[in-house]
Write a structure and sequence with these properties.
This protein is an alpha+beta fold. It is built from seven helices and seven strands. It has a five-stranded mixed sheet, with no helix packed on it. The protein has a two-stranded antiparallel ribbon with strand order 2-3. Helix 2 packs across helix 7. The radius of gyration is 23 Å and the shape is globular. The two termini are 31 Å apart.
C-alpha cells in the first residue's frame, strides 16, 4: 500500500500556513498532514466554472449541489455561498469568460538543491466593460488571511500573473465570502488586489524561503516517522516468525 504524502499547498494555503520560523511552519504542516480537512471547496469552484464558462443555468448548478453533495453541513455551506456568487456576476455581467490553464510556480531551492513549486489553478478570467478581470475566490467562512499573510498571498499571485502575457494586464480581484463573526451570515467583499498593502520583493522571497525550508523539514519528519513505523512493523513480523511459542499448524 502506497504511503500518504505531504501535498504542496496552493498559494492561498501557503499564505494561511506561513509562520515566523521554518520549524513552526513544519509543525503546522505535520499537524495538517495528521488531521486532513474533512472537505474542500473544489466542487463549488467547478460549479462556478459550469455556470460562467459553460453557461450552465444557475438553477441547474444549485440542483447539482443539492443532489451530489451528500453531507448536509457541507451542502448547506455551499448553498450559503451560491446566492452571493449569483448576485455578484449578475451585477458584473461578464462579456466573456475563459478557462485558464493550471501551472506551477517555483518558490525556492532547499539546501539539497530541491525546488519547491506550488500548484496554481486559476478559476477563470473574464472580460467586462473593456477590461480583463482575474477573480480569486476565498470561500473560507473565517478568512485567516490578514496583514502580512494576505500581502504574501497577493504578492505571489501578482508575480505569477506577471509571467503570463495573457494575464499580466488583468485586474486581480479577490472575492471574499467569509463572515465577520461566527454567528453572522456570510457576506461578499470584492477586494482589488492593488488595495492590499504590498510587501517588498526581498521580504516576499524571505517568507517563501522560510516556507520552503519548513515544507522540506515537514517532509523529513513525516518520512522519518513512517520509516520508524515500517521498521517496527518488520521487526514485529520477524519476531512472530521466529517465536518458538508459535506452533506450526502441521
Amino acid at each position: 500500500m502506497s504511503q500518504k504524502v505531504l501535498n504542496v499547498p496552493s498559494a492561498q494555503h501557503l499564505a494561511r500556513n506561513w509562520r515566523e520560523r521554518p520549524e513552526m511552519i513544519a509543525n503546522e504542516l505535520v499537524r495538517l498532514f495528521d488531521n486532513t480537512p474533512l472537505f474542500n471547496y473544489n466542487a463549488l469552484v467547478h460549479a462556478v466554472r459550469d455556470y460562467l464558462v459553460f453557461g450552465v443555468p444557475f438553477d441547474d448548478v444549485e440542483r447539482g449541489i443539492r443532489e451530489k453533495v451528500k453531507r448536509e453541513t457541507v451542502r448547506n455551506n455551499f448553498l450559503d455561498i451560491l446566492p452571493l456568487l449569483r448576485r455578484h456576476f449578475e451585477d458584473e455581467k461578464p462579456d466573456f469568460v475563459n478557462a485558464v490553464s493550471p501551472r506551477f510556480y517555483p518558490l525556492a531551492r532547499g539546501a539539497d538543491g530541491r525546488t519547491l513549486s506550488i500548484p496554481f489553478k486559476p478559476p477563470m478570467v473574464y472580460g467586462v466593460g473593456g477590461k480583463l478581470v482575474f477573480p480569486w475566490f476565498i470561500f473560507w467562512r473565517k478568512n485567516p488571511l490578514k496583514g502580512e499573510k494576505f500581502s504574501l498571498f497577493v504578492s505571489v499571485v501578482k508575480e505569477i500573473l506577471a509571467q503570463d502575457p495573457d494575464l499580466e494586464d488583468a485586474e486581480f480581484q479577490i472575492l471574499d465570502f467569509s463572515s465577520v463573526k461566527p454567528d453572522q451570515p456570510r457576506i461578499l467583499r470584492s477586494i482589488n488586489a492593488n488595495d492590499v498593502p504590498e510587501i517588498s520583493v526581498s521580504r516576499r522571497n524571505e517568507m517563501l524561503e522560510q516556507f520552503s525550508q519548513g515544507f522540506f523539514l515537514a517532509q523529513e519528519r513525516i518520512a522519518e516517522r513512517q520509516e520508524k513505523k515500517e521498521r517496527a512493523k518488520r521487526e514485529q513480523e520477524r519476531r512472530e516468525e521466529h517465536d518458538p511459542r508459535q506452533q506450526s499448524f502441521f
